[in-house]
């Protein structure tokens, strides 16, 4: 399994018991969706290694307490500490309406209600406090905020995202 075929689910953040149990900090708005997994991929070195889950339960809000079949003691748990957890993209719940996963909208065209085609989504920058579409148009890069007030429609068939950008934002990029 390759990382490009998977999505990031979380990270192993601490040991829970001397029997090799670990706590995974889930990177999701709906942790309960992942409470009864049979297996996950753990990133070890440059590989994704499948690990099978014996038992798991939610621990506090976004922590998943997991007992893996392969980890039977503290030193086994130490080997995977800090490792990232992945699942195949096929396990992502389908989103509808104006909701989308960042990876699925790469290559979509952004259509603004005033300016029309304002470019192709090259990537999403989610390292800032506000996630941004990184859009290329005529050799220029535009950074458009991703939020519910701006996005009016997502058309997966036509690969377009309809937006109403704040007044002056597109002009700021296109007139420079």
Describe this structure in words.
This protein is mainly β. Helices cover 7% and strands 45% of the residues. The strands form 2 sheets. A 6-stranded antiparallel barrel has the order 1-2-5-4-3-6. Strands 10-9-8-7-12-11 form a 6-stranded mixed beta sheet. The longest helix is centred in the middle third of the chain and has 7 residues, at 74-80. The radius of gyration is 20 Å and the shape is elongated. The N and C termini lie far apart (44 Å).
Q: How many individual domains? A: 2
CATH architectural designation of the largest domain: Beta Barrel
Strand content: over 45%
How many alpha or pi helices? 2
Classify the helix fraction into a percent range. under 10%
For the largest sheet, list the strands in their spatial order. Answer: 1-2-5-4-3-6
CATH class of the largest domain: Mainly Beta
Looking at CATH, which topology of the largest domain would you report? Elongation Factor Tu (Ef-tu), domain 3
- N-to-C span: 44 Å
Describe the oligomeric state of these chains in a short phrase. single chain
Q: How does the overall form come out from the CA principal axes? A: elongated
* Estimated structural class: mainly beta
Integer average pLDDT: 92
The CATH homologous superfamily of the largest domain is called RimM
């Amino acid at each position: 399994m390759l990382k490009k075929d998977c999505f990031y689910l979380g990270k192993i953040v601490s040991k829970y018991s001397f029997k090799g149990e670990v706590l995974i900090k889930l990177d999701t708005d709906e942790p309960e969706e992942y409470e009864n997994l049979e297996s996950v991929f753990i990133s070890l070195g440059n590989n994704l290694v499948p690990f099978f889950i014996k038992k798991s339960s939610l621990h506090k809000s976004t922590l998943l307490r997991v007992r893996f079949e392969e980890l039977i003691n503290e030193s086994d748990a130490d080997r995977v500490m800090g490792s990232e957890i992945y699942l195949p993209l096929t396990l992502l719940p389908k989103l509808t309406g104006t909701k989308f996963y960042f990876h699925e909208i790469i290559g979509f065209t952004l259509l603004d209600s005033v300016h029309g085609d304002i470019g192709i989504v090259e990537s999403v920058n989610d390292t800032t406090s506000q996630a941004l579409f990184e859009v290329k148009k005529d050799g220029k890069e535009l950074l458009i905020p991703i939020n519910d007030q701006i996005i009016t429609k997502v058309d997966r068939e036509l690969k377009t995202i309809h937006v109403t950008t704040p007044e002056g934002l597109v002009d700021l990029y296109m007139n420079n």
